[in-house]
Write a structure and sequence with these properties.
The protein is α/β, with parallel strands linked by helices. The protein has 2 domains: 142 residues, Urease, subunit C, domain 1; 287 residues, Metal-dependent hydrolases (TIM Barrel, Alpha-Beta Barrel), CATH 3.20.20. The chain contains 17 helices and 16 strands. Strands 1, 2, 3, 4, 5, 14, 15 and 16 form an 8-stranded mixed beta sheet that branches. α7 links the parallel β7 and β8. α7 runs parallel beside α8. The longest helix has 19 residues. It is globular, with a radius of gyration of 22 Å.
């Protein structure tokens, strides 16, 4: 490949410039048949596979959880003679650790009954009216102890970690009271201490209006603002606030006031929006949300609005698969110049799959996304949706979060549609890397 020859030549010239030798106790990992850095890619718009930076016979020097340098393995050996070598004797492709920006993995119970009803032809709203849906999970999550929720969250986080996901956003939203939401966020905090992945908490107390709340949506959201969010801020339990804007959840007008107040309090704000009906995109632009997640119902008008603003579209193909609904218009979003992030939405109701890579590969086939568009949506572009600029790219100074697949060509990974899993995962915190799969 021409790109390989050019990059190898570039690596030689940059290394020959002779930086001072690295004298620390670094580790050189490699060689990789292909090292995909995901560097130098624009954060918005369509991408072609020719834009990928691929380093053949690549290596990574890491120290104290950070990347020191990436480049040609043999040249790195010469340049860092004191580095310990973790030699790979087979063919591997190396990529940044994946980032899942939208999950609900802190819950108790199961919704297999909902799924059976859905297969029998019942709609999402009909299932909720029959006693299923989100409230069923709320009931079971409230009944669970803190320790039980921690255990369940750790188990699911470890499952995702083994799939190559090194950063996982985790929402509350199945407590729906001050006490129970705090229990969920505390469970997420404790789970983060017991898993190899890094968990990023989000307060989704505004998931639906609780059935046992005596009052309307505005009163409930005011309760969250006055009694829950100050405690979350004081205890540093989350820095992100989410709300479900939908006919079965919260109105645009109620959500607007809530999100603006949360932003005033110093929270980053995101929106569940345009899943079944529109209105969320306009609100997201107005309140300058970091992202809007779902977008299955987004039409050309919403797509055009997203192209004009800075809100990051996050699409959730596993929810479409779980509900039997159309995918979000990923191809159209990229073609008008927006960013695109893909997340798993792992939850007990609409997205029980829990496999980010498989759902992303299926979306790529359905929406005709290039391989680099899919990988960017799982790595470098995903990092921006969490406002994390220290991961998602393999280059000096970034977290040493990377994964390897046993193949000599990166195209094999998506071709296998999630069946080819990472052989090994490194997570960049110095107390626990490298980690065996």
């Amino acid at each position: 490949m021409l790109i390989k020859k050019i990059l190898l030549k570039k690596e030689k010239s940059s290394l020959v410039e002779e930086k001072p030798p690295f004298r620390g106790l670094g580790v050189l990992v490699g060689p990789f048949s292909q090292l995909l850095t995901m560097d130098k890619l624009p954060l918005r718009g369509a991408l072609s596979d020719e834009q990928l930076e691929i380093i053949p016979n690549g290596g990574i020097v890491q120290h104290n959880g950070k990347i020191v340098e990436v480049g040609n393995f043999e040249l790195l050996k010469q340049h860092y003679p004191s580095a310990e070598i973790e030699f790979l004797s087979d063919h591997y492709v190396c990529l940044p650790g994946m980032i899942d920006v939208h999950t609900h993995i802190c819950w108790a119970g199961s919704r297999f009954k909902d799924y059976a009803m859905r297969l029998a032809g019942k709609s999402y709203l009909e299932i909720a009216a029959a006693g299923g849906g989100i409230w069923d999970t709320v009931t079971k999550t409230r009944e669970a102890t803190l320790n039980e929720l921690v255990t369940l969250t750790v188990e699911r986080a470890n499952t995702l970690f083994k799939q190559g996901i090194t950063t996982i956003e985790v929402k509350s939203g199945y407590g729906l009271s001050v006490e129970q939401e705090l229990k969920m966020l505390e469970a997420i905090r404790l789970a983060n201490e017991q898993t190899k992945a890094e968990l990023i908490p989000t307060c989704l107390a505004a998931h639906i209006l609780p059935k046992d709340f005596e009052g309307g949506e505005k009163e409930y959201l005011q309760l969250i603002i006055e009694e829950l969010l100050p405690i979350i801020k004081e205890k540093s339990l989350a820095n992100r606030v989410d709300i479900f804007v939908e006919k079965s959840a919260f109105s645009v007008s109620a959500a607007r006031s809530y999100l603006l107040k949360a932003r005033e309090m110093g929270f980053e704000i995101v929106i569940h929006g345009d899943q079944f009906s529109t209105g969320g995109v306009t609100l997201a632009n107005e309140v300058q949300a970091l992202s809007i997640d779902h977008l299955e119902a987004a039409n050309d008008e919403e797509i055009a609005l997203l192209a004009k603003g800075n809100v990051i579209p996050v699409v959730l193909p596993a929810a479409s698969l779980g509900l039997g609904e159309p995918f979000a218009p990923a191809r159209k979003l990229l073609d008008v110049g927006t960013s695109l992030v893909i997340a798993s939405d792992w939850n007990p109701g609409s997205a029980p799959m829990g496999d980010l890579l498989a759902s992303a590969a299926i979306l790529g086939a359905a929406e005709k996304l290039s391989m680099v568009e899919v990988w960017a949506a799982l790595t470098c572009r995903a990092a921006t949706a969490l406002n994390k600029n220290d991961r998602g790219i393999l280059k000096a100074g970034m977290k040493a979060d990377f994964i390897i697949f046993k193949t000599n060509d990166y195209r094999e990974i998506l071709y296998r549609q999630g069946q080819l899993k990472p052989e090994k995962i490194w997570k960049g915190s110095p107390q626990n890397f490298p980690q065996e799969n």
